[in-house]
Specification:
Shape: globular
Oligomer: single chain
Largest sheet: 7 strands, mixed
Number of helices: 8
CATH superfamily: Class II aldolase/adducin N-terminal domain
Strand content: 5-15%
Order of helices and strands: HEEEHEHHEHEEHHH
Mean pLDDT: 97
CATH topology: L-fuculose-1-phosphate Aldolase
CATH class: Alpha Beta
Structural class: alpha+beta
Length: 238
């Protein structure tokens, strides 16, 4: 995978800019993190928009050291990332943001329905964290979010936003973008007529064929090419 040649800081920068084009742009809010081979976590700093992130805008912290989150320019909600990494050794990347359609879905009583191939990625369900709509800024709240996420790859934060966790940055980026697209298509479908979801068993059977490492490699490379064509790769590595 082309992303393997990129450092964690480079991957976080690329993913941030990709997500800005996929509906996650929200002033300087939202953050992407990656767990490095060294066990450290690399996360976008506060104060820069997703479409501005450069490798030099990436901070690091320890999964096991709460005080490592107290450095200047760390996002207040970095505890979300730390709690998920502690609870999920299988997770290599975490994304939090406020994309409009998925965030709107999380402000209703409606679940994400399996209406399209996009929603198939979430065939095992998308749980909801509804203990508070506030910012998640302390360790207890972070642990509560991680518990709500469980073994899933995505979580709706009621009246707040979304959290996505997956095995690496390209997979997490795909999951985040696909969740927003699935919510957007559900919004469109809901306006057109009664919903006709794909049966859960069928969706689970489709999952392995529709979403594979080789496809994610292609998608990641295509996203980078798209950014380059748009001139949105300024200050990112060649």
């Amino acid at each position: 995978m082309a992303a393997v040649a990129q450092s964690p800081c480079e991957q976080v920068a690329w993913a941030s800019r990709i997500l800005a084009t996929e509906g996650f742009a929200d002033l300087t809010l939202g953050h992407v993190s990656a767990r490095g081979d060294d066990g450290r976590v690399y996360i976008k700093r506060k104060g820069v928009a997703l479409d501005e992130v450069e490798p030099g805008d990436v901070l690091e912290f320890s999964v096991d050291d709460d005080e490592s989150l107290l450095v200047p320019d760390m996002h207040l909600e970095a505890v979300l990332h730390q709690a998920v990494y502690r609870a999920r050794p299988d997770v290599g990347a975490v994304i939090h943001g406020h994309p409009p359609f998925a965030t709107a879905l999380g402000a209703t009583a409606a679940p994400l329905e399996i209406l399209t191939h996009d929603a198939v990625l979430f065939a095992d369900g998308v749980p909801v964290f509804d203990e508070t709509p506030e910012l998640i800024v302390d360790a207890d709240q972070g642990r509560a979010v991680a518990r709500a996420l469980g073994s899933h790859r995505a979580l709706l934060l009621r009246n707040h936003g979304v959290l996505v966790a997956d095995k690496d940055v390209p997979w997490a980026t795909l999951a985040a973008a696909t969740l927003e697209r699935a919510a957007r298509l559900q919004s469109i479908a809901s306006a057109l007529g009664p919903l006709r979801p794909i049966p859960a068993g069928t969706a689970l059977g489709m999952l392995g064929g529709k979403y594979r490492d080789a496809f994610v490699e292609e998608y990641w490379a295509a996203w980078i090419r798209k950014l380059r064509r748009a001139g949105a790769d300024l200050s990112l590595p060649a």
